[in-house]
Write a structure and sequence with these properties.
Number of strands: 21
Structural class: alpha/beta
CATH architecture of the domain at 462-620: 3-Layer(aba) Sandwich
Number of helices: 24
Low-confidence stretches: 638-647, 694-704
Strand content: 15-25%
CATH topology of the domain at 462-620: Rossmann fold
Bound molecules: adenosine-5'-diphosphate, magnesium ion
Distance between the termini: 38 Å
Radius of gyration: 32 Å
CATH superfamily of the domain at 462-620: P-loop containing nucleotide triphosphate hydrolases
Helix content: 25-40%
Amino acid sequence: MNSFLKPDSPIEYLKGVGPQRGALLRKHLAIEDVQSLLFYFPFRYIDKSQIITIRSCIEEGRWVQIIGRVISLVEKGGGRSKPLIAEILDNSGSIELIWFQSQNWVLDNLKTGKTYRFYGRLQKSSYGLNISHPEFEEINDLQNYSPKQPFDPVYSTTEALASKGLDSKGIRRVMEHLMLSIDLRSIHENLPSYILARYKLPNRADSLVWIHFPQNEAQIKIARDRFKFEELFSHQLKIIHSRIQRSLLKHGFVWQNPGLLYHQFKENYLPFELTNAQQRVILEICKDLASGHQMNRLLQGDVGSGKTIVALMVMLIALDHGFQACIMAPTEVLANQHLISFKEYLNQMGIEVALLSSQVKGKARKEILQNLASGQLKIIIGTHALIEDQVVFHNLGMVVIDEQHRFGVEQRSKLWSKSKSLHPHVLVMTATPIPRTLAMTLYGDLEVSVIDELPPNRKEIKTLHIRDRHRPELIRFMRDQIERGRQIYIVYPLIEESEKLDLENLQLGYEKLLTFFPLPQYKIAVVHGKLKSEDKNLEMARFVRGVAHIMVATTVIEVGVNVPNASVMVIENAERFGLSQLHQLRGRVGRGAEQSYCVLMSSNKLSDDAVSRLQIMVQTNDGFKIAEEDLRIRGPGDLAGTKQSGLIELKVADLVEDHKLLVAARQLAEAILGRDPQLAHPTNQLLKKLIDHQGEKPGWEKIS
Ligand code: ADP
Ligand code: MG
């Protein structure tokens, strides 16, 4: 028999599919050929290996499997479709089975006096506890009975597919055909045998059979692990490989040592001592800059850990070697904030700084662009506007990207290309403390530095959770803080889907606030996304200069804003924020010498889940702990905006659950590429293929 389907045969060729279902499979599940169907994995299994006694069928809603003899089979009641009711018996008791449809088919196949295996869900009806529409299979030899297929795979599907017969059961049937229609030897192994042996992984073909139609639980686990490892390992192999290639190919500007400007700044203008962590990070960066390779480094540091000053000093090193440097911020507000602090430092040293954003227009813009192109302007601060094509540098040597998670890889590489000769060195800074596992996966192509120490004399921020009914206490507290000369942030959530409502909410809150904090005694600034940029800047400036006591804002202030005198952060509807976001917001206070507070306001009624999430915030100030919790609760998809940036797409593995596998996969990839960076060795030929097949993405379902 030589009629096997090839792995790349169109899905329509498979028995039971055809053009109509084929089109749906393509559209809804991106399944194009039989191979991609083969890689459409079940997300759970129904365990049919357990058979229970009828007497223990007591729990409504439970899926059960029983073996019993049919003692009666009758159509009962009136109405159009009389239900068919069977009573079955085992040596512990009896139960009723009910069919409301297909009675004739059942009557043909179910015979009184014979014994069957039944599988279905216990439910209550006017007839008492029963099972409706169970699956059944006749059993001839009760003594030696074992189910043909102890685990039924369950596949996720869509309504449209289900309506064309491709519900989970339908997919299972198609999958059964597929297993018979394909020569599993045509599914090639993609991991070398020494890896399979070392990690005791089954081969690819067996794993495919086991993941769809396992004979026991061990097969499920071992097959899943195999595909998880395959996924994590090939991902790690790719990113580490590309990192190595880049370091081999991409030469960078060689800057042996920091020069005059750097030292001048450090000795004469730096207003404080650098922390040990800051010093260590600068040293790591200096090594990169002297190495001859282009730097691509991620600088992680909790909010308030002092990343800005590190950026500034690193940018000065570029100037020391005659190059330009830029820093890119994700928002206008943050770019402005940087402008203010950079100016403060650099103007004393006679270094000019300018800001470029979409708001900078006309003559001012023209002048900046000219000065960048001529090289007269050495340091530029900007938003996304910096990556526009019209922005041309004379010799860009250093790019700093603040708050990485808002920028995708693509935007990063667009900045690289701004340099005509070699790529500039790149420092990416993020205040989202990304758990190590995730950092490994997301930023495997970057070197990582961590500032794990806060500047001295910071007082721990006190965090409180207050429900709406206790708002009067909050007002008293705020008045007291303002009397002491402190400033206060009040942040409202702003979610795109409910933007209009959220803005109304903010407006309402602001108006109420005015009654508690009336002019002229109190001054309140308002900042939100719908404000014109000039107004936004004006309002920000009022708060930064200390003119306004309170700033009411949406999350635009989330990143980077630095007002040391602001010591209270009130977050309204705190239950609507993610933990990492709350932590970011909290980091806006606690920057001065005063005791700072973060008040999480919530509605009076909260789910247990929301309470415990807010409790985590009350209990810890450790950004890493919070990020881990957030990752655990929300899954990695949402963390750090990874979804938008499309940095990561795991189909089978789970970053939290499969942490150990990930570490093993990474170590293995490092070791192999360390010995054989080009994967030239004969035993690594499969791996070379794995890397070259960048585009191959089977339609894997996430396994839960
Ligand atoms: P982030 O890492 O969140 O960007 P910033 O760079 O804005 O933090 O720094 C927060 C505050 O800490 C700033 O006011 C900055 O001047 C101050 N700071 C930074 N480094 C030190 C230090 N070594 N000693 C004292 N204060 C510092
Ligand atoms: Mg910052």
